[in-house]
Amino acid sequence: MPFSLFPRLRELGLPGPIGVLQLGASYGQELREFAENGIRAGVFVEPLPEPFAHLSQTCALLPPERFIPVNALCAETSGKTFRFHVASNGGMSSSILAPGSHLAVNPSVHFTHELELVSSTVDELLQREEAQGRGRIVAALDLLYMDCQGAEFQILRGASRYLPQFKYIYTEVMRNELYQGQVPFLGYCHYLDALGFTLNDVYFGYPEQAGNALFIRKDLVAVRG
Fold first, then answer.
1. Distance from the CA of 120 to the CA of which of 21, 78, 151, 218 falls in 20 to 30 A?
2. What is the pLDDT along the chain (225 residues), one digit of tens a residue?
3. How far from chain centre, in Å, is Cα 185?
4. Is 104 a member of any domain?
């Protein structure tokens, strides 16, 4: 069944997160939900100019010193130029990966053009925020929230320095290679298990073949190894 992050954490009796790093923040449509559920600080990353402009305006309605919009593309390595495939649905299906079965599963969504964007890793991005005097915000981040259209695994590989501080990882997941070269879901499970996170919930929709997964740091749920 579909599940929502914050109600699920309450059902489990787990402490709510207080800070979020959101990758693929789009227009900022989740910011109200975050604020209403106890998030008191955040870094919100969006690569596309138009959604980012709206995201910045939304963040400005909240305490500006605690809700930070960042215009950046996160990937496994820094300084690499990617052809970013821009989708017609307000950019929400855009990805560094070329579309695969997405074209058949979602025929109303078209990929209209490409932008050349230079990447940053999560580690570099957060180090930069710390250097700009936002160390307290970075230290508060305990929820990693990702919606990056098949590129989430690459992003995780560029976040090794900061991953241990997160309690929860809530990420979009896909199957049937909606995007070319996306890592299969079990690859996420194995990778994150080795880094100290256990899969708690997962949901895939049909026929869209996409959904969400919740990984929890093992020490919070008494999982060994």
1. 218
2. 679 999 999 999 999 999 999 999 999 999 999 999 999 999 999 999 999 999 999 999 988 689 999 999 999 999 999 999 999 999 889 999 999 989 888 889 999 999 999 999 999 999 999 999 999 999 999 999 999 999 999 999 999 999 999 999 999 999 889 999 999 999 999 999 999 999 999 999 988 889 999 999 999 998 886
3. 15
4. no
**How many CA atoms lie less than 13 Å away from 207 in the CB half-sphere?**
7
How far is the C-alpha of 47 from the C-alpha of 61, rounded, in Å? 21
Tell me how many domains the chain contains.
Answer: 1
Q: For tokens 């026929």, what's the residue?
A: 207
Name the residue range of residue 34's domain.
Answer: 5-76+121-218
Rounded to an integer, what distance in angstroms lies between the CA atom of residue 81 and that of residue 211? Answer: 28
Neighbours of 166 (CB within 10 A): 22
pTM: 0.96
In a domain, 11, yes or no: yes
Q: Reduce the DSSP state of residue 192 to 3 states and report it.
A: helix
8 Å CB contact between 40 and 11: no
